[in-house]
Amino acid sequence: MTAVMDSPQRENARTYRSTPTTEMVTDNTLTCITKWHYVWKDSRGGNSNCDFTALKAYATDDHVRLLISKFQQSGWREATKVSRFIDVRSVLAHAFNAQSGEQKGKVEFSPETCTKYIHATYLSMASTGKGLNGIPIQAKMLGWRGSNLNSICRKFGFGQIPKAARNLDTRSAVLDSDNYTVNELRAIARALLEDRARLRSRYKDDTLSQSQKRVVFNRLVCNAVFLTIYYLGTGQTETLSMFLENEWVCKQSGTGRISIEGFKTRGEKVELRTFTPRAACKGFFEYHLELSKEHSVSLGLDKHYLFRKMNGKAPNTEELQNYAKKFLVKHSIRLQSLIKNNPTFRLNCNLLKSSIKQYAEQRMGREK
User: Fold this and answer.
1) Among residues 46, 133, 52, which one has the least CA distance to residue 85?
2) CB 247 within 8 Å of CB 263
């Protein structure tokens, strides 16, 4: 034992292998990171280009540098780094593109953005059978992906994704515990339809000044956004980006439903969508599409955009919330009653979408 203790301690060759001490992340700020592009072997043995500069489109330089340092210190083999890079890129891209409005802020990879990504993927899966990338996905695969994202968050020291948000192989309701009840959904729909009838009547009033007419029109647009989400189960960003290049097509689909074709949405790519909502929404879409087409033509827009205010811009989140929280509630006894019974009740696009998706799944999805 004495001989072993007295012998010189062998230096750790890995510590000094090829990286100068002055450039080590542990000894310097993240600004010392200058390598942004990596070529790693994927699980099939091929070379995979992982270019972190691509992440600058979604996150700040400092955050991307932080992610690079986390990858460098992860201890993952190269194939794992490739798959984890794809996961991180997907989460950042979704978090960035999910923001409404033209001015989008930089985002970060975190348990919160991962949770929203998992939730959005689940809602897409529940309605179309496909993930956000258009590839078919099942609940067990999404649960596995959620587990991977949680491992990344823990490895990077960012915290954990709530367990309820990633256990998707049994019931989906854990994602939607704050969703509206069926009675609340009915009250919301009736409040929106009643307010729309009132706004339509008000908009036809020839005695209104231009500024008054603008306010009423903008509220009609906000109202239409919420009703479209209610009828189609689309998200806020997806709804606001809807446009038509040709005429829309409405067909009877049986069992009290219609098939609506021709709507396009603009996300990471332009996508032609087909919906099969309840036939009761036909009158709403006929009126709104006529109104929105006339407005798009009057503005000289290149396409027929469905949701543009008087100034040609889409409503932002603040304007939608202001309409739902102040104006709609003020004129709806139904919503006032809901708030009285449940002071935490609030109408917003995300909850409305997830509630409709859950309701549709329970009626037509998992029960089949």
Assistant:
1) 52
2) no
